[in-house]
Write a structure and sequence with these properties.
This protein has twelve helices and twelve strands. It is an alpha/beta fold. A seven-stranded mixed sheet has the order 2-8-7-6-5-3-4, with helices on both faces. It is globular and about 70 Å long. The relative contact order is 0.16. Bound molecules: pyridoxal-5'-phosphate (PLP).
């Protein structure tokens, strides 16, 4: 049986969640836009899911939620709707689902793209970010939880400071690694927030963009006018209902899970051989991620060795495995050298992770780390 500790890449849906999705595939399969009672019933179910997902983190009178196909789509929708003139500011720690659209802003001549540096712990350097914001800034995007290191940005406080400097800025946050894991209520200064189902026990192919009601987006997809004309395409009803279910479970257990996973994170770190591994994740980061580096060794090789021994872990972001450089971009941005960036291993947990799995993972990581180090010296 494999030990799966790459939950920041994706999570395994529970059996109960899967059965719920099945109900919407095999029985309640009707088109939610159809004008007969079965269709209305599914439309009503979508409405409930929308409200349940939104109300967990935002005031429903001020915000609305648009279903999308994934976190990537939500980020793209947000960026290409609002970063259209002047300059747009983001951080060097963002996921490629923000960085690539920012590169496109520049390539297409839509807006100047500015990047704020990170601090050593992976969080954004707020003073330097603010220094990039001026009266020509139209859009600022700061991720909530960094997917490679696990650092948490206080997005409410940052949004407030950004708006003090330029009240016309539209503030977006990529909340894909935070939703259902880190407690938050969106402050009135946050305009847009991206979430994704498959990071919290939901299915792949469902995400959402939470947005301030008063903002008018430029829809990416136009057609049948679903989602109030903001995102056309027949809704993924089974995925959305299953997202709702997964979120109910995650939010109900949020603080209990956080405490337990924090203790696992620390147990893994304390159990690792510190002659092989250095810690990159900050103690005040997400309990769900422990990122270490086997400095001088290759993370990708250790990942394969772990895989052969029955342990699945990550090396930085799974989504950047096609990247041109093998070094973790984010780790370099934190100020670490290439040797450290090359040795990165990301161990990420889920509420299903057990203590036995943690103990076995420590054993495997120490064994392979010592083995490779011996062979390399
Ligand atoms: N943003 C962050 C911080 C992520 O970690 C990920 C997934 O790895 C994404 C965006 C992309 O989400 P999705 O896979 O739903 O497109």
């Amino acid at each position: 049986m494999m030990i799966y500790l790459d939950n920041a890449a994706t999570t395994k849906p529970s059996e109960a969640a899967f059965m719920l999705a099945k109900e919407y595939v095999t029985e309640k399969f009707y088109n939610p836009s159809a004008l007969y009672k079965e269709g209305f019933a599914v439309q009503g179910e979508l409405k409930k899911a929308r409200s349940a997902l939104l109300s967990k983190i935002a005031d429903e009178t001020a915000f609305e939620l648009i279903f999308t196909s994934c976190g990537t789509e939500s980020n793209n929708q947000a960026i290409f709707s609002f970063a259209r003139r002047g300059n747009a500011v983001t951080t060097m720690g963002e996921h490629s689902a923000v960085l690539s659209p920012f590169a496109e802003l520049k390539n297409k001549g839509l807006a100047e793209a500015r990047y704020s540096p990170l601090k050593k712990d992976g969080s954004v350097d707020v003073e330097k970010l603010l220094a990039l914001v001026d009266d020509k800034t139209t859009f600022v995007s700061v991720m909530h939880v960094n997917n490679e290191i696990g650092a948490i940005n206080d997005i409410n406080a940052i949004a407030k400071k950004v708006k003090q400097k330029n009240p016309r800025v539209i503030f977006h946050s990529d909340g894909v690694q935070a939703y259902g894991k880190i407690p938050v209520r969106l402050a009135k200064e946050v305009d847009l927030y991206s979430i994704s189902a498959h990071k919290i026990g939901g299915l792949k192919g469902v995400g959402a963009l939470i947005k301030r009601k008063t903002l008018v987006i430029a829809p990416y997809l136009i057609g049948g006018g679903q989602e109030n004309g903001k995102r056309s395409g027949t809704e993924n009803t089974f995925g959305i209902k299953q997202f709702e279910y997964a979120a109910q479970v995650k939010f109900a257990d949020l603080s209990k899970d956080s405490e337990r996973l924090k203790s696992y994170r620390e147990k893994v770190w304390n159990g690792l051989d510190h002659d092989v591994y250095v810690r990159l994740s900050p103690e005040n980061g997400t309990p769900y991620i422990l990122t270490v580096s086997a400095v001088g060794l290759r993370g990708a090789v250790l990942q394969q060795m772990a895989n052969d021994k029955g342990l699945i872990i990550g090396t930085g972001s799974a989504c950047s495995s096609n990247a041109k450089t093998r070094f973790s971009r984010v780790v370099l941005a934190c100020g670490y050298d290439e040797k450290t960036a090359d040795g990165v291993l990301r161990i990420s947990f889920s509420p299903e992770t057990t203590e036995e799995e943690i103990e076995k993972a420590i054993e495997i990581l120490n064994e392979i780390g010592r083995d490779l180090k011996r062979r390399m010296s």
